[in-house]
Amino acid sequence: MSIDGFLEIxxxxxxxxxxxxxxxxxxxxxxxxxxxxxxxxxxxxxxxxGRLLSAMRFLEARSLAELHAQVESTE
Length: 75
What we know:
This protein is mainly α. It has 4 helices and no strands. It is globular.
């Protein structure tokens, strides 16, 4: 999945319209970030890729870059 497609899903599902520069920002430093977003994104990326993703690895991620890497590894 492209970074732009990834960020589009993040924006749509979480209402967080971020840039590529925000990908490596720790979740604790992202404005309006909520841990509930991880579960929403897990479901959204599973639907987008048609594959199951590791919930444990998603919950261990510290940035969107780490989530993107996980989504990429399933393709």
